[in-house]
Each structure stands twice: as structure tokens, then as C-alpha cells.
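--- STAGE predict ---
source: upstream dedup step, 1 unique chain passed
mode: sequence only
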Amino acid sequence: MGKVTVQFLGSGDAFGSGGRFQTCILVSYENRHFLIDCGTSALISMKRFGVSPALIDAIFVTHLHGDHFGGLPFLILDAQFLSKRKKPLDILGPPGLGLRLHEAMEVLFPGSSATEQRFDIGLVELEERRATEIAAGPIVTAYRVSHESGAPSFALRVQCGDKVIAYSGDTEWDDTLIEVASDADLFICEAYFFDKRVRYHLDYESLRDHLDQLRCRRLILTHMNEDLLKRLSEGDAESAEDGKSITV
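--- STAGE serialize ---
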């Protein structure tokens, strides 16, 4: 069985709670490397933890909020001017990804979206519940969840050889998560508050109420705000932290 390494380059929320970087998860196997989400701080966190942006084969985006996709303009510009990237980069995400990325690049760096790249960027807008395979190897399937971002928001299942990495993205409790986590070797799940229930985000207590339905082999919490970070000792779930690396 092949080994898959997962490193949390960013495990925080949109507001830097606990001094953590925004969501960015590096998955590596069989000399393939891809990111799940690419928050605005992604390039900083990659360089903090010694991860070369040029290694990345693909980026899977769950939804179009800045703390999950806002790092893409910086990563693309780094590839063009610093990393001197030549190999293709696949970016997969929800419908509207192409337009939102264009708009983000123009707001942050006017004219940058029209710059001719030295490498090909393959933009793929994922279809709900349709397995999509890319040249870099992984097979990703997107599941619509309950989170408003101006476009569909997804949880993802990524098949890496004989291993499955699942991720909730941002969402309030949704029974779809039972399907997303089913038989996954690792389920990475948002837990924003400890027990406060707010629309579009998942709290730890609600997740705990459904743990017996999640048939995953390992569960790790992420995207935690100050409330949950201060109360982690009250729960019994494993949690992410910036730089943490595990083997699945």
C-alpha cells in the first residue's frame, strides 16, 4: 500500500486566530504534490515550512472565499517571476473559479491576468459528485455543502492511489459529510466554534453528535477560531496545527 503524507501548511480561520495561517493542506504521494485550498497566506506558509511552490502539481479549491483561494494570485506570480515554473499547474474548484481568479488577480495586481505565463494553467470547474482525474494523478470528487461563498461550496474526496483523503471545506453540519467521510483514510473537518452554532460553519459539539456516523479511519479538526483553540482540552478529537505532518 502506498504512503500518503499530509502536512497542514495552514490550519487557521480567515482571521488569523491563534496566529495560524489560513487553510492550506499539502498532500504528497508517489512524487506527486498537491494543495487542498490555498488561502491568502499560502505562499508565506509554504516558504516558512520549506515547501517549494514549484513542486506543486495541482491545487484543489473547496470554495471561493479568500482564506481558501486567495493565495492563488500570489502563487501564480511567484511561479512566473521567482520559481520560474515550466511544468503545468492544474487548478480545480467550484463553478465560477475562472472568473473569480481573474477578478482577484486584477484587483490585487492590475494587468496580471493578461500576462503570458511560461507554463500552462489548467482551470477545471468541478461538477458535483463527478469524479475528475487529472494528469498529476489524483482523482477528486466534489460534494455540495452548506456554506455561502457566492458560488457552490464543496467538500472533497481525493483518491491518492489506494488512499482517500476527505475534507469538509467550510460548512454547517450536513448529512453529506457522512458520505464524504465514508471509508476515508483521513477526514479533515472544520470545527469553528466549540459549541456555538452559527450558520454555514460547523462547531465541535455538533460534529461530536455525529461521530458514530463518520466511518473514517482518522479524523483531524481544522479551521478553528479562538473559542475552540482555548477549549481543545475539553474534547477528545485530534486537531491540526501549522506545520503538522502525518502519514496516512
